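Input:
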Amino acid sequence: MGAIEVRGLVREFKKGPRAVDGIDITVAEGEIYGFLGPNGAGKSTTVLMLTTLLPPTAGTATVAGFDIVKQGAEVRGAIGAALQEAALDKFLTGREHIKLQGSLHGMKGAELKRRGDDLLERVGLTDAADRKVGGYSGGMKRRLDLALALLHNPRVLFLDEPTTGLDPQSRTALWDEVARLAREDGVTVFLTTQYLEEADALANRVGIIDHGHIVIEGTPAELKASVGRSSVEIEPHDAARLGDLERTLAAFGTPLTMRGTSASIRLNEGVSDVAAIVRALDAEGIGIHQLRLREPTLDDVFLEQTGRSLEGSGDDEDAAE
Amino acid sequence: MTGFPTWWSGVSGIAARQTRAFFTNPALIIPGLLFPMLFFAAFAGGLSDLTRVPGFDYAPGYTSFQYVFVLFQSSMFGGIFIGFAVARDFENGFARRLMLATPHRSAILFGYAAAAMIRAAFTIVFVTVIALIAGLDILGSPGQIALLYVLALASNILGSLWALGIAFRFQSLSVTPFMQIPLFILLFLAPVYVPLQLLSGWIRHVADVNPATFLLEGGRALLAGSAGPVLAAWLVVIIGGIVLGIWSLTGLRAAETR
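Output:
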């Protein structure tokens, strides 16, 4: 049995859409599962159900072997979660949060102190531990939230858009910690994100959700391979030769969308075509101002599956999330 | 750790947080003390000549008569104020942490209620000290006085359960008037200024069946060491506890399914 097993899970809001519409997911022990989709796709609603904060309308799910509806207390004892907005009390210090979180999980005394100190050090908050959280930066709050989620050694960790609003340095530090948790501690991580690079860098497998449905699932490499070959985009020295450029390139692949001063194609053979393209353009006397070779990305996968781009999409979608 | 130890640990953790917030935040502690003192000063000080009204036969005097009202009023409102704290925690998202991290969620309800009781106990001590300075006369036996304070703390639990039921259901500070106003109405339709037998007309009819009347008259009888509706006061606490317990627990269930 996987660490997370979801079958036909549905959540319907009153007078609203089906935010989650019959999804199936299996996440293995120790796996990092990236759950990708635009705002309003159903990511957070799924997490709320799997963490027992929201009951499903239909379907079943087990987390760490426990049914999310019938065994809520056991699920909560086995999971940690850092949700979109860190739920912290600005009047408590970091250490007081640790103490409260520990008491909620039945931890106390030396065990709690040792574990709390370890985690505060691991997330780089030892020096700030006795300061009130009201004075923490966004990154510090996220890191404290992560420490709190890990306090009771959860078997499954839910991270809902954990790096939204973080600076690049904090984001990288958090990625490193999440990767280490899965690798060294065997923690199963369910990571929702709208950042493609985050899913690409961290996840063993990725599921893409759109309008409450999972549209595709697999390893990042599999998903990108499913889109096909690399593409190349070339900008000529002389903008007047753009038409000639397009005609020359057409022999090497399928034309893609044009961006005014450049032309791009999906390569027939892949990277090995590039040398031949350069030679052909040289023979035609078309100077190259810029040449960009692009590997397929998860955004290409999303585009292929939904006809829309994931990056920057969905900002106006439903408020269920 | 599982089962009762985890549950109890959750209750004490939540109660400790709320208690710390109360004792370290002047904005919480000062109104909680000023409110009952204002009532006490206004009623016991300004209306003491009421004891000359024929039929006003409360032996310990008017200060003691009003002390019982202030005791119950401050206890019950101590419970109401915990509803404010819960609503605030839902509004700022902190309640989500509690819902997520507490395996047995009834610990949330009991934790907040325990914090309200600690707060009420502090207010009761404060009010009693002030009342003793102002001339509180105690004629009841130590056992009766102990029962009076248990009754006051039980009324705090009733106030907490009422307010928690609302806070869990609506999860917003905008509904706090619904926590307070019914209690104000209940208290002020009871014999606040004069004994029940001196009330007449519609207010007498209302006071005769008002549960707060039994609490006040029972409490006053315990303080005076005299006969009174003490048993009825306990019935109010027991029946009220059952009804409001169901109200708050179903509120918690509603919060879980929102």
